[in-house]
């Protein structure tokens, strides 16, 4: 009788325990605004972590990695977009109703305000590698950043995280980098607690870095003799760092330089790509004035090509200035040499099929070509 009672009591406790986890809730009070975030659920994508986050520039390369991290723990993510097709893949990253697309135009302040006013955090990933006839570097990196920061200030946003770039410098010969620095200064003057993030060249599945070098089959133009030193960083590591900044109080008002674990020259990178893909990339050193002239002429084409400003950026070594890094966030970086194959495998030539089989051949029937690993 007593044993039966105990079992009943235990199972009741178990049920209550489960129910508590399922319906657990917690209150987090923002240090800056005193706003209360209500956390409910066990922490997965069907829970809510209380955050409402707007990610400008979410339709780009980094955006998908960041939104994936934010939405899978139950945040409401506002996804501002220009072209509906460019944000479709983001909608499935969160539970039903958690990803909220909103159409915006950088010159329509009301549309920007509508995307910001319910949020507690704003990520500004807006950026462009080249200028268009409608938007200059200054329009996107400076003016738009200023407008977003002002709106964020007006609506008392808790966290503003501004994406800049490694080597951002007001005096840089690259307009991309000088406007990124202007954008940083403007944002900081409006929101001193803003976090600035400066990544080096990011690589990943959809990158414009490794892919561009690998795609230049037959001929790759070497600028600066291939001697410029860069520290490419995995886009996943950058997204993880940016995700941490959401709640990491040690990131408030700080600048982070996010670079990969190893420094390479462009020449070393080309050699790595050649070795990994077996592509016969012949590289020719082109003096900068000629490369810039050709790039300028190519920029008249109606599709995107290597811009003259990108040539300028390819001349600048990645230099750390002593800002905070991945170490301050306790994030272990992935290595290009280990992960690079994931992104370069698709560029491998069919010459791999003609190579002698290496160790790993299983019997006669089933061949296992290790060079496809
Ligand atoms: N990728 C790198 O290696 C690298 C290196 C250093 C710094 N960064 C910076 O990091 C950020 C994210 O990089 P990313 O590679 O993800 O950039 P990305 O792929 O070029 O995406 C840029 C985003 O900005 C938006 N955008 C650009 N111009 C706009 C305009 N006039 N109006 C509205 N939206 C506009 C784009 O929207 P649409 O899709 O509508 O065009 C897109 O969502 C950028 O600020 C970039 O400058 C990148």
Automatic annotation (TrEMBL):
Annotated ranges, domain NAD-dependent epimerase/dehydratase: 53-254
Transmembrane segments: none
The organism's place on the tree of life at top rank: Eukaryota
InterPro entries in UniProt: ComplexI_NDUFA9_subunit, Epimerase_deHydtase, NAD(P)-bd_dom_sf
GO MF annotations in UniProt: protein-containing complex binding
GO CC entries: mitochondrion
Protein name: NAD-dependent epimerase/dehydratase domain-containing protein
Organism: Linnemannia gamsii
């Amino acid at each position: 009788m007593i044993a039966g009672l105990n079992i009943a009591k235990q199972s009741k406790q178990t049920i209550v325990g489960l129910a508590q986890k399922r319906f657990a809730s917690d209150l987090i009070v923002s240090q800056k605004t005193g706003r209360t975030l209500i956390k409910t659920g066990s922490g997965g994508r069907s829970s809510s972590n209380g955050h409402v986050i707007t990610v400008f520039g979410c339709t780009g390369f980094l955006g998908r990695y960041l939104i994936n991290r934010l939405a899978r723990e139950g945040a409401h993510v506002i996804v501002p977009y220009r072209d509906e097709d460019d944000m479709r893949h983001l909608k499935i990253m969160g539970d039903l109703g958690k990803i909220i697309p909103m159409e915006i135009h950088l010159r329509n302040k009301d549309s920007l305000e509508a995307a910001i006013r319910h949020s507690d955090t704003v990520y500004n990933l807006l950026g462009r590698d080249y200028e268009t006839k409608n938007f200059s570097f200054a329009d996107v990196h400076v003016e738009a950043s200023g407008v977003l920061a002002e709106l964020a200030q007006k609506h008392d946003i808790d966290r503003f995280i501004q994406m800049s770039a490694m080597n951002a410098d007001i005096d840089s010969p690259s307009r991309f980098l000088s406007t990124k620095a202007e954008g940083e200064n403007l944002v900081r003057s409006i929101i001193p607690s803003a976090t600035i993030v400066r990544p080096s060249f990011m690589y990943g599945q959809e990158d414009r870095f490794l892919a561009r070098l690998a795609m230049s089959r037959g001929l790759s133009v070497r600028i600066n003799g291939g001697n410029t030193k860069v520290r490419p960083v995995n886009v996943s590591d950058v997204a993880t760092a940016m995700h941490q900044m959401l709640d990491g109080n040690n990131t408030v008002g700080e600048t982070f330089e996010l670079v990969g674990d190893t420094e390479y020259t462009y020449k070393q990178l080309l050699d790595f790509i050649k070795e990994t893909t077996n592509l016969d990339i012949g590289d020719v050193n082109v003096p900068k004035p000629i490369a810039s002239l050709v790039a300028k002429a190519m920029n008249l084409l109606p599709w995107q090509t290597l811009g003259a400003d990108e040539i300028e950026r390819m001349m600048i070594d990645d230099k750390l200035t002593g800002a905070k890094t991945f170490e301050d966030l306790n994030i272990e970086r992935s290595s290009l040499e280990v992960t690079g194959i994931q992104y370069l495998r698709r560029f491998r030539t069919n010459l791999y099929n003609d190579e002698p089989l290496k160790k790993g051949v299983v019997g006669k029937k089933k061949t296992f070509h290790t060079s496809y690993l």
